[in-house]
Design a protein that fits this description.
The chain is 30% helix and 12% strand. The protein is built from 2 helices and 2 strands. The radius of gyration is 17 Å and the shape is elongated.
Length: 67
């Protein structure tokens, strides 16, 4: 765990963690979610700016429906 913050509104606590891979994130989320210690658990994966830069150089053959 890197840090945690409390907030007002729909989400009461935010936890920032640096985990080694996606399966570890899933396992941790499942363990915390099934513990009933919290009423709701959501996971958001943060995207590294270098990954965004790499993605902009990939050409995708997508056409919007009806285009």
């Amino acid at each position: 765990m890197e840090c945690y913050h409390f907030s007002f509104g729909g989400t009461d606590v935010y936890v920032v963690a640096d985990l080694p891979d996606t399966p570890t994130v899933v396992a941790l989320g499942a363990a915390v979610g099934s513990s009933e210690a919290m009423s709701a658990v959501e996971t958001d994966v943060l995207i590294d700016p270098a990954d965004i830069d790499a993605a902009t150089s990939i050409t995708v053959g997508y056409r919007a429906p009806g285009a």
